[in-house]
Structures are given as structure tokens and as C-alpha cells.
């Protein structure tokens, strides 16, 4: 294990590796976005190369598409795949009900479409992503560029009636210019601190004209795979109510880390 891999990065790898075990030949798989999901794509790429794994991957961003293709994973569009067996993706926060905040990487619109079109969604995370109440991580809203400042004002006015603590909003920037998503939209980050009723907030935010999609995932995720830097991993399945404790041998996968260097 190279020294430069931090404990948090090892934890992300461990969750991604364990979750990739759910993928079998013939599956249509949603490929998430972010640093944890990138580990999962690398793990699948290794199995495609070394073990003859055959899957069709539906990426949730242009970044993930480029990574998957570079690793020899067959990439298809969601419309070509139509329905997916499984989506594996990261999250910014998850709670005990497996409600999520996603979109830290600005890809939550495609991520939500893909996860919702899947029989199962597995979230991969390190333990720091677990929260009692969602909201410490800013909630992303994807908004169309047209009239975004008016949309921002409408969002702020609407938040006054909602069960949240903070109400500041900020346009996400990429250097000096607004961040632009793969769909050509912008992101408003809502600094809410605490979201008392995520289901209600999600419904209300999506009704504001100009808002395309929010980063709350409610009743979408079925399983969370939490990795630790020492190789321990927990698999929690919300539908069966089971928690499985397992481990991943980090030394066995040194080649994957070496490839990164
Ligand atoms: O929702 C996402 C991207 O839109 C990511 O899954 C989320 O931001 C977690 O990222 P990371 O695995 O890098 O912590």
C-alpha cells in the first residue's frame, strides 16, 4: 500500500471494492460520480480486464464515462439500457433511513435519474458521511441558467416556511465563472445546517420554476456499504434490516493504487 493513500481514501476504496462484488456478468450497472465512485469504476475495470466480467455501464457524468471507457468497460446510454439491475454511487451524507444528500460533484441530476431507473441502489461511503440529521452538507439544487437570480430569490423566500435552520444560498462557482453541469445548468448550494423534513423539502424545492432537481435522495437507496481505513466494511440493507460485517484485504489490491501513480 503506497504511503500517499490517506485513511479516508483507503476507506473509500474499501467500500467501493466490497460494493463492486454485487456486480455480475450480464448486468446493466449505473456508475456513480465522485472520488468513491471512481474507485468502484476502477474495481470493475480490473475485473473486466482480468476476469472477463461483461457488463453494460451507464455513467452518471461525463467524468465517469471517460474513466469507464478508459478502463475498457462497455458504456451505454440510459435510453439504450432502458432499466438497470444496480446503481453504485457515493453520497455526501446519509442517515439511518438511507436518505441521502448528493451532488457535491454537481452530478445529482443524472445520478438521480439513473438510480431511480435501477432495481437497487447501493451507496458507498466512508463512516464520516453518516449523520443523525441531514443538512450539515449544503444541499445542491440544479437550476437552469435563465433567470437563475430570480430562482435563487424564490428559493430563499420558500425556505422561510421550511423546517431548516440556515437559509443562505450560493451559486456554485468554477473559478470566476458559474459551475456548469453536464446538462448545461447551474448549481445553487443551500446552507441549511439541519433539514427537519427532507421529504417535504424535496417536493417543495422541485416545484419552484427554474429548479430542475435537488440533491435529496429519498426512498431510492437500498443498501449502504461503509468502508474503514483498516479494511473493515459494513453492508447495511434497509429492506431486510441486516448488517453484515466483512473486510477487504488492502494489500491484495496494491496494483490498483500503483496504477494511479
Ligand atoms: O453526489 C456526488 C456527485 O454529484 C458524489 O457521489 C458525492 O459528492 C460524494 O463524492 P465523494 O465520493 O468524492 O466524496
Structure summary:
This protein has helices at 7-20, 35-51, 62-70, 78-81, 108-116, 148-159, 198-205, 254-260, and strands at residues 28-31, 56-59, 74-75, 84-89, 93-94, 100-101, 118-126, 139-143, 168-171, 173-174, 177-178, 186-191, 211-214, 216-217, 223-227, 232-237, 242-247. The protein is an alpha/beta fold.
Characteristics:
alpha/beta; Ribose5P_isomerase_type_A; 261 residues; binds ribulose-5-phosphate; Rossmann fold; isomerase; 8-stranded mixed beta sheet; Alpha-Beta Plaits; 4-stranded antiparallel beta sheet
Please tell me about this protein's structure:
Keywords: Isomerase. Homodimer. It catalyses: aldehydo-D-ribose 5-phosphate = D-ribulose 5-phosphate. This protein is of the alpha/beta class. The chain is built from eight helices and 17 strands. The protein has an eight-stranded mixed beta sheet. The chain has a four-stranded antiparallel beta sheet with strand order 9-12-8-13, covered by helices on one side. It has a three-stranded antiparallel beta sheet with strand order 5-6-14, covered by helices on one side. A hairpin with a 5-residue loop joins β5 and β6. The longest helix is centred in the N-terminal third of the chain and has 17 residues. The chain is globular. The site of ribulose-5-phosphate has 18 residues, from α2 and α5.
Q: How do the helices and strands line up, and which of them pair or pack?
A:
Elements: H1 7-20, E1 28-31, H2 35-51, E2 56-59, H3 62-70, E3 74-75, H4 78-81, E4 84-89, E5 93-94, E6 100-101, H5 108-116, E7 118-126, E8 139-143, H6 148-159, E9 168-171, E10 173-174, E11 177-178, E12 186-191, H7 198-205, E13 211-214, E14 216-217, E15 223-227, E16 232-237, E17 242-247, H8 254-260
Helix pairs in contact: 1-2
The structure holds ribulose-5-phosphate.
Ribulose-5-phosphate (5RP) binds next to helix 2 and helix 5.
